[in-house]
Amino acid sequence: MGDEFFTLKEAAERLGVSRATLWRRIRGGDIAVFQSQQDRRERLVRREEIDAMMRPVEINPGKELAAA
Question: Are 42 and 34 in contact (CB under 8 A)?
Fold first, then answer.
């Protein structure tokens, strides 16, 4: 099974953020970006990376509240 990709617009919509915010995450190294072979201007991100960002992470409420 090959990699599946989102366009930047699709990824931003899925995450509920602006494209500018998505670009900040890309520049920060949180998300890898690829160039489409069909359209060299189009940028793509891996679907699995975007899906992973949407999964909830466990927190320790006691530590979070104590740090505040």
Answer: no
Count of structural domains within the chain:
1
**Cα–Cα distance measured from residue 45 to residue 14, given in angstroms and rounded to the nearest whole number:** 12
- The pTM of this model reads 0.75
pLDDT band at 38 (very low <50, low <70, confident <90, very high): very high
Between the alpha carbon of residue 67 and those of residues 25, 36, 61, the distances in Å are: 25, 44, 10
Q: How would you classify residue 4: left for phi > 0, otherwise alpha for psi between -120 and 50, otherwise beta?
A: beta
Q: Which domain holds residue 19?
A: 5-67
